[in-house]
Write a structure and sequence with these properties.
The protein contains 5 helices and 4 strands, in the order H-E-H-E-H-H-E-E-H. The chain is of the alpha/beta class. The relative contact order is 0.19.
Length: 269
């Protein structure tokens, strides 16, 4: 019986340590949510402004001759896969990798330690990813696409819906799709629309990659806070249950000792 109470004490101590850890990680995630949401809002505004510009450019018939709007017969795909630098975020990383596994034969460009480890590439942090990092990847991708080294460019990221909901999805970037909407503004391009498009597309891809990374990071910290809250509740429940078992075991041991003393006192000398 004493061995049982000792084992229960050890489990209670271990679960209490886990509870303290989940509380700490939940607090860290909560502290990052405000900052990540501000960065997310700015990135969305920047991306939306660029989408409007690209929509206006791609509606021009001259721009349809651009190599960045070329739709090829082959299906060589490159995907930027954005995951987290750490785990313990519920299904955040698993959902991204599950979606990536559906693209057979694609070439993956990982961002985030978990993605880099999975695809065997050098480590690139998703939390500390900068505009210069996005620009470097975008320039390389646009150059390769223009040379015809691949046919489609997409980004697998996690869309931030709310603090409780985040969805892994794909955003297709290249080739640029033709816009059927006619612009109401009489924009004059110098020297011409196709030249502006070919120079602007690199900035567009840079902004899109950065926006998706900011969206993914906001989703990651929200998912981690929810996961730590859930783990904390489970740990508290487990501690309560273990406490009841410990009290019962301890009471049983005391009762057994009293019974043995009483039985011993009644025996003949």
């Amino acid at each position: 019986m004493s061995g049982n109470t000792k084992a229960l004490r050890s489990r209670i101590k271990s679960t209490t340590s886990t509870l303290q850890l989940t509380k700490a990680m939940g607090l860290v995630a909560s502290s990052k949510i405000y900052r990540s949401n501000i960065a997310l809002k700015k990135a969305r505004e920047y991306s939306a402004a660029f989408d409007k510009v690209m929509s206006e450019l791609t509606s021009d018939s001259e721009c349809h001759k651009s190599p960045f709007m070329a739709v090829r017969d082959t299906d060589r795909t490159r995907l930027v896969v954005i995951a987290g630098d750490r785990g313990l975020a519920g299904g955040y990383n698993a959902n991204v990798f599950r979606l990536a596994s559906t693209f057979y034969g694609a070439e993956f460009i990982p961002v985030g330690k978990r993605a880099c480890d999975r695809f065997g590439k050098p480590f690139t942090s998703s939390e500390r990813f900068s505009f210069a990092d996005a620009q470097g990847i975008a320039n390389s991708l646009c150059e390769d696409f223009e040379k015809g080294q691949f046919d489609k460019l997409g980004i697998i990221y996690t869309k931030y819906v709310s603090a409780m909901t985040q969805d892994a999805c794909v955003r297709w970037v290249l080739p640029l799709s033709k816009s059927d909407e006619k612009s109401n503004t009489c924009t004059i391009y110098e020297p011409d629309a196709i030249t502006v498009l070919n120079h602007t597309v690199r900035e567009y891809v840079t902004g899109t990659i950065l926006a998706c990374i900011r969206e993914s990071f906001a989703s990651e910290v929200a998912a981690r806070r929810m996961a730590m809250d859930s783990a904390g509740k489970n740990a508290k429940q487990m501690i309560d249950e273990l406490g009841l078992q410990y009290n019962r075991a301890r009471q049983g041991a005391i009762t057994q000792e009293i019974t043995e003393i009483v039985a011993g006192s009644g025996s003949p000398l």
